[in-house]
Amino acid sequence: MAASDATTARSAPGAGLSPGLILAFVCMGQFMVFTDVSIVNLALPSIQEGLGMSEVSLNYIVTAYATVLGGFLLLGGRLADTFGRRRLIQVGFVIFALASLTSGLADSGTMLIASRAVQGFGAALITPAALAILTNTFAEGPERNKALGVWGSLSGIASIVGVILGGVLADTWGWEWIFWINVPIGLTAAVLAPRILPESKAEDRGKFDTVGAVTLTAGLLLLIFTLGEATTVGWDTFRTIGSLVGVVALLTAFVVIEAKVASPMMPLRIFRLKTMRVANISAVLVFGTFGSLFFFASLFMQQAFGYSPLKAGFAYVPLAFSVAAGAGIASAMVTKMAARPVVMMGLTLTVAGLLLMWRAPADGSYAVDLLAPFILLGLGCGMVFVTLQIAAFVGVTDEDAGVGAGLINTSQEAGGALGLAVVATIAYSGMSSEMAATGGNPDLITEVHEAANHDAFLSGALLGTVALLVVTFMMPRGKQSMSSGPAEAGEGPALVKADAEK
């Protein structure tokens, strides 16, 4: 990638180590972060029993981590650009490891929830810094596409592995170990980072945009928290409506601030890049689709198929392998064609899988009714994750790599929260009265659960269809921006300008 005068300064990998080792290191960090999004799910009953927590407070073990992670990603990206990406990833690993230690040592629900929030903050420093290091290590084009293919596939696989690993550890060593396992990994990574990772930062840093950082982070925290709570408190309540008004006010203020300050936290010029812009819009819809899928598929297998939590976790194994296969297919395809047809193909597979889930009966079998849709969903998930990650960096300069990384990851987190909130609202509409009408009959209860989950899968398919339409009609068609780096033919500025004007 051709660099401007104010672009990031790159340094060589530490100790003469290869780019492959750098990729393995940053992917390990990403895997740890995404595993912890889902690792607590199957361990929640054990945690509830061990700490005497209420049903309501259990939800915050999950949302505290996800809310802080999503809310601080953009701030983490800009901090990495300003103070050094390797430095931020080291700080993030230390914070994550120490918060994991206190999570396992928690003797109350309050302490655990607070520790999970700090874990989320550490994760928000690791993820954008790691992704920025990756994009600075590999030149735009086939080399970077392959690296982002590995990164994107691990993002999808880690969430599934987290479910399985959480069930295994909770049933064997105890729920504390779902957190303690991170401690030696995180601290070792912090120590090894200077020996493996190059340091890089934006040379023309200017004064840090403190007001913009506070405004944006507050707006994102409030948005993700409000979306997560909407299914519990209701969309039409004063609390939800008031919070959404607050979100709009904060994000509007942020845009005004960024247009005026000399050194903005998020340079608005980055939104001139159409491929990047559409990739982020698509990510919101796509991750909303997959966020609702993983949540309701877990419930469907337990409520309608009668699976134990551990069996439901292992039922995801074929899906995990399919994600890896889809990521490999996408990585090869984007070197030969534009992002648009690859994402379209992935979303078509995803919608088809969700429609098959919609028709799966409660008295069906795994091999007949779940395996095929899981394979389709995994292939679609891998293809879409990888391609959107690559598209989100087309034309983004090294100077703004941290912001680009924070932006795509924020779109994913916000999209997941939004999709789950919307789909859950549809699926659970009227469910209370339907459950009351069952009179405690187990067969009727199963039917109610089956209907709710079917509504969720159909809603997810509709959300995926909207994403497919956005990609079809909005994403640029040209393949040169995906298949080769701008610098290869001396066309850097021209390609970026063309992408911005499409």
From TrEMBL:
GO biological process, one term: response to antibiotic
A Pfam family this chain is assigned to: MFS_1
Keyword annotations of the record: Antibiotic resistance, Cell membrane, Membrane, Transmembrane, Transmembrane helix, Transport
Molecular-function GO terms, alphabetical: transmembrane transporter activity
Record-annotated membrane-spanning stretches: 21-44, 56-76, 88-106, 118-138, 150-171, 177-196, 208-228, 240-257, 278-301, 313-334, 341-358, 370-396, 417-436, 456-475
Region annotation (Disordered) ranges: 481-502
Cellular component terms (Gene Ontology): plasma membrane
Protein name: MFS transporter
Source species of the chain: Streptomyces ambofaciens
Lineage: Bacteria, Bacillati, Actinomycetota, Actinomycetes, Kitasatosporales
